[in-house]
TrEMBL record:
Keywords: Cell membrane, Membrane. One of its GO terms (biological process) is regulation of protein stability. It comes from Staphylococcus carnosus (strain TM300). The gene is gtfB. Pathway: Protein modification; protein glycosylation. It comes from the Bacteria. Required for polymorphic O-glycosylation of the serine-rich repeat protein in this bacteria. A stabilizing protein that is part of the accessory SecA2/SecY2 system specifically required to export serine-rich repeat cell wall proteins usually encoded upstream in the same operon. The GtfA-GtfB complex adds GlcNAc from UDP-GlcNAc to the substrate protein, attaching the first sugar residue. Stabilizes the glycosylation activity of GtfA. Has no N-acetylglucosaminyl transferase activity on its own. Forms a heterotetramer with 2 subunits each of GtfA and GtfB. Part of the accessory SecA2/SecY2 protein translocation apparatus. This is UDP-N-acetylglucosamine--peptide N-acetylglucosaminyltransferase stabilizing protein GtfB. It is found in: Cell membrane.
Amino acid sequence: MINLFERFNQPTETLYFSMMEAGLDHLTVVLNDDGFLPEAVTSPYRFFAENEIKDNDHALYFNEIEVPRFWNIEGDNNQAVIKDMGQVRGKIHYQPNYKQRIVSSVEWLDPQGFVRYRDHYDQFGICFAQTTYDLRGVAIFKEYFTREGEPLIYVNYTTSNYVLTWHGKDYFFETEVDFIVFYLEVMGIDLDSFVINHLGTPLSVVYNLNTEGHDYVVWQEHIDVNTALPGNMQLILNEKGINRSLRDFTLIVPDRHEYDEIVGKVDKDAKQKVELGGYIYPFTRRNQFTPHILTMTNSDQIENLEELVKLSPHLKFHIGALTEMSSKLMAMERYENVKLYPSIERETVKKLYDECDIYLDINSGNEILDAVRRAFLADMLIFAYAETAHNLKYVLDGEDGDVFRTADYRELMHKLHQTVDNHEKWRDLLKRQKQQANAVDVGAFRRLFE
């Protein structure tokens, strides 16, 4: 069995680590390599590049980017720019949910401020690819290189063609699917079973293999309740006998609501191909039912914070930020039940996630350090404002849920007080929070792929 994933985004990561936890640690291939894949995961780029990783290789810190003489780099924990005599000529993008200020890509701007190309960096500090843009800001082609800078893969976004330069020979491919099929064939691996989580390129690749096999499609997207199922989904379910490939498919749907929508739209035979799934989450600890509350923010816009603090003297509020805090937020430390952590160190972050049992997702601005998901994995009970929630997948929503409108902060506070005083209620909310995130045990997960 082979995992064939389009990208290693958060849904893919959740699926991947579920499979690892279940002992299903077979080969995992990610088609679009962002340079920061886990060590055990491979990609077409990694396979063909054959880069030798050296002991002193490291991800680039923002100020390690090479710039022309007299240009300078300015940055903080959120972003960085490259300037020439005060004019911005480059924008440095950090790898999200990684170490602080680590470069994932650099956009280079022309004198008029238009992006002309983007350099892509990996976790070893190698500039492994470059995307070129037209004057409209549309990507027109992308080139991949070996660590020595030798051309490897050329992608023309206008024509969809691929060119591979490998072992002294050029290979031309009409489409990405042709390129990926070639890659799988030269790897010399068994192609009898795949796990995919996207109905685009991964499905097209598997569907067009000239070998028989049984494959698993994990649906992690959303069905439009007002329309028929996507054509590719009808294809894998073989409704009306439209599957013309040598492959047979099982559709696994981790989300209960999505599962109900899908089975409600298909015939009896197709329903036999649909399974209700879930995820195994690598919880890092168990909730200890302490009144310690955490919020991670890079903004001082935390609605109703002072009112919550003043009306909850029996609760301890811990607020961390990657940056310095404003005077407005620093003033909150006058309350005995508030502890602030400006420019927080990673060890302190870890300590807070180990010691706090409630997370308040009530700050405006971008989420930092994958804070909500991390709180979920730390078995913390999560409360949120609907207007500013950063990741509702991990927050109990709906009737008697833990999501409130900002104007209803007193209701949030009331439920918070009730929960802290009633451990049985607390346990029930935690159980329902896990159910909403579609948590299952190892045995149930493994049976999906038998």
